[in-house]
Structures are given as C-alpha cells and as structure tokens.
C-alpha cells in the first residue's frame, strides 16, 4: 500500500514538472506585427528555443506607444513565464504621461538589454542645407524651418531633437505625426523641413535621394548610413542612442533571471541572429541583468531632465 502511494506521489510530481516545462514563455511586444520590435523579438525567440526546454510565444499588445504591454507585464506574476520586450521610449513615459503609473526600476526586473539603435536627422529635398551647420544657420535666418517631424509626441526622437536645438542655440517646433511613414512622407513633401527618426527608418529614402541625412546621434556612424557624420563629427557635443530590452515583472527570482538572461544573450550573440538584427538597423548587445539595470536607471534620470525642461505632457 505504501509503495502504491509512493509511486502515485512520484507520478504526480513528474507530471507537475512536465507541465511546468511546457508552460509557454510569453514575450509581450507593445507594437503590431511587422514593427522592428516585433520582428526582432521573433528572431531572438527563435534563437532562444534551443536553450529553453519550453515553448516561446510572441504576443502583440499594441497601444499607447508600448504602455498597454508594459501594464500587462507589470501585473503578471513573477513566475518567469512573462517578459516584456520594450524600447527605451516606453520606459520614459512616467516622466510625461499620467497613465504610465509605473516606476521602471521598482515595478519591473531588468533581464538584459537586447540592442541599441541611433537617431538620424534628415531634411527634405527642398531644403538647401547640405549639412547640420548649414541647417542651423538656415533656421536662424528662417525660423519656420525649425519645424520638425517625428513619429509621435513623447518619443525619444522628439526629445533628442529638442536637446540638439538647445545645444545649437535655435528654436525648433515639434510637429507630431501618427507613425513613421506619415512623418517621412510629410518631410519629403515639404510640409516640414526636418525629420527626426531612427537611421533604419530612412535608410532607403536617403539612398534613393528622397531625403538628405545630416547627422546621426550615436558615438559611431550608423552601419545603415555609413556616409552620414555623427553629431560630434558635425561639431555638436551631444550623443545618445536608444535601446530595446527584455524586462520582467518585479520580484523575479534571481535564478530565474539568470536562466532567462543566459538564453536571450545566447540567442542575440549567435551569428545568424546578430546578422538578422543588424539588417533591421539595430546593433546587438546582450548584457548582464546588473549592467542593464544600471543603464536603465542612468538613462531614465538623464532623459527625465530633458523631458521636464520641454514641458511636454502626454494625453494618455
């Protein structure tokens, strides 16, 4: 009788372990299918599968520039079954959006930075400036040339351009559009003179001669726009890059964080995945949880000052 009970108990434990192993890991993405964050997450998920003995599901929860997805993960139990793939801009939202009622450092657990990407400044074909200094001189003579487009109010390109304008001693007025494509179209058509977006977003238009890229924000030149100088090369002592990262709900156990970090970093550093990411215009990184937590805190504080100075308040 005792042996039968022991066998039954052992069977129950093995069944529970098997069920746990088959529990899907949900990677929540706050943007629709086809967006860079979505495509990159799916590439990384594919590379993670050999390192985790469980299914991986990419789940799109678009809305509020990533806010809807962030709220899903904030509310998830800290059981290692749910992670958020987020761009840096979403983590900045508490500085300006009332509905973003979270603290990036205390309401989430840092797992790893996945990649970095830069911001590019470009002008349309009707703007006579050939480089950034010529553009600054043009705005000083014709202030209306300081109108600039981005994909959304409250985005990192929005705030980075304001930081540049202050450094250059000019006034620039933000004209937000509902997405990157309409912002690009408006700049090409001459509705606005200046566009701020990621290098990958405009590489094809620059190569086709529809836009003229003036500078990129990163410390090194962009691999997708290698002929375009950095801001520092252009004579402006500012730089900055944005990032994508994986974070989990607060309270994730340290061993769970290490296991997830190891799988994600292994995927990112695999040559095939890294090459796919570079074709998307992002630079693969893959950091320790501790290194990413430090990056998150430092960037959140740095950009908070810029956002507060801008006076921007979102309506979400």
Mean pLDDT: 90
Class from helix and strand fractions: alpha/beta
Number of domains: 2
Mind telling me the CATH superfamily name of the largest domain? Bordetella uptake gene, domain 1
The Cα radius of gyration reads: 22 Å
3D architecture notes:
This protein is an alpha/beta fold and 316 residues long. It has two domains: 164 residues, 3-Layer(aba) Sandwich (D-Maltodextrin-Binding Protein, domain 2), CATH 3.40.190.150; 98 residues, D-Maltodextrin-Binding Protein, domain 2 (3-Layer(aba) Sandwich). Helix content is 43%, strand content 19%. It is built from eleven helices and eleven strands. Strand 1, helix 2 and strand 2 form a beta-alpha-beta unit.
Question: What's the topology here?
Answer:
Blueprint: H1 2-22, E1 25-29, H2 36-48, E2 56-60, H3 67-75, E3 82-87, H4 88-91, E4 108-117, E5 119-123, H5 132-141, E6 147-150, H6 156-168, E7 173-176, H7 180-189, E8 194-198, H8 199-207, E9 212-216, E10 242-249, H9 254-269, H10 271-279, E11 283-284, H11 289-310
Helix pairs in contact: 2-9, 6-11
Summary, kept brief:
The chain has about 325 residues and is α/β, with parallel strands linked by helices.
List its salient traits.
11 helices, D-Maltodextrin-Binding Protein, domain 2, globular, 19% strand, 43% helix
């Amino acid at each position: 009788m005792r042996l039968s009970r022991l066998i039954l108990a052992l069977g129950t434990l093995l069944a529970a372990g098997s069920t746990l192993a088959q529990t899907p890991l949900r990677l929540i993405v706050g943007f629709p299918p086809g967006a860079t964050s979505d495509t990159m997450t799916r590439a990384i998920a594919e590379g993670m599968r050999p390192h985790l003995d469980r299914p991986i599901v990419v789940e799109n929860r678009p809305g509020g520039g990533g806010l809807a997805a962030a709220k899903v993960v904030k509310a998830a139990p800290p059981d290692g079954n749910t992670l958020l793939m987020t761009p840096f801009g979403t983590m900045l939202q508490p500085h300006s959006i009332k509905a973003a009622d979270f603290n990036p450092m205390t309401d989430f657990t840092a797992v790893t930075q996945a990649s970095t990407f830069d911001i590019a400044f470009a002008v349309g074909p009707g703007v006579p400036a050939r480089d950034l200094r010529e553009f600054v001189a043009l705005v000083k003579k014709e202030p209306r040339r300081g109108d600039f487009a981005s994909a959304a109010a409250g985005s990192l390109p929005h705030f980075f351009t304001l930081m540049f304008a202050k450094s250059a001693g000019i006034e620039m007025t933000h004209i937000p559009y509902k997405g990157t494509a309409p912002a690009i179209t408006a700049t090409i058509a001459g509705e606005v003179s200046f566009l701020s977006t990621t290098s990958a977003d405009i590489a094809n238009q620059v190569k086709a001669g529809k836009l003229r890229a003036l500078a990129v924000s990163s410390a090194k030149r962009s691999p997708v726009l290698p002929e375009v100088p950095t801001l520092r090369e252009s004579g402006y002592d500012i730089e900055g890059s944005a990032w994508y990262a994986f974070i989990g709900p607060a309270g994730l156990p340290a061993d769970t964080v290490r296991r997830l970090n190891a799988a994600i970093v292994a995927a990112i550093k695999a040559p095939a995945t890294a090459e796919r990411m570079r074709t998307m215009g992002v630079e693969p990184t893959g950091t320790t949880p501790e290194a990413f937590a430090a990056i998150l805190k430092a960037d959140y504080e740095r950009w908070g000052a810029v956002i507060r100075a801008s006076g921007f308040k979102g309506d979400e």
